[in-house]
Design a protein that fits this description.
It is a single chain. The chain is mostly helical. The protein is built from five helices and no strands. The longest helix is centred in the middle third of the chain and has 36 residues, at about 50-85. It is elongated, with a radius of gyration of 28 Å.
């Protein structure tokens, strides 16, 4: 088994982190330019504390409307699939029934093997 570096092993995560940091930095940088221009139009000096509060509000608002929805759709669905929600098990019973029939057809003691498997994996 080959040892992979952390960079290769988690390449997708690193690329995602880079794109996230790049877009966040761009958001704040261009937000600063827009803030300075807005302050200039009103004859006010730009204040870093005021800008920080405004950008935090905008960033969290964007995350709430976009990022958190996506997280729920992906992570929530994956979690529910993992738990075995009825939607994720729609075809499982049919597949299991087919496998039982195949086992009965190819093995002399198919019914015994099925009972043993059902007992081992908790099916009544």
């Amino acid at each position: 088994m080959r040892n992979h570096s952390v960079w290769k092993k988690y390449g997708y995560a690193w690329a995602t982190l880079f794109l996230f940091a790049f877009s966040l930095a761009g958001h704040w940088m261009f937000g600063w330019y827009a803030y300075v221009e807005e302050q200039r139009e009103h004859g006010e000096p730009p204040v870093v504390a005021s800008y920080t509060i405004e950008m935090m509000r905008d960033t969290l608002e964007n995350w709430q409307s976009e990022f958190l929805q996506l997280i729920w759709q992906v992570a929530g669905l994956a979690y529910l699939f993992y738990l075995g929600s009825p939607q994720s098990k729609e075809g499982d019973d049919r597949k299991e029934e087919k496998l039982d029939e195949i086992l009965r057809a190819v093995a002399k003691d198919g019914d015994e093997k099925i009972k043993k498997l059902d007992k081992k994996y908790g099916k009544a």
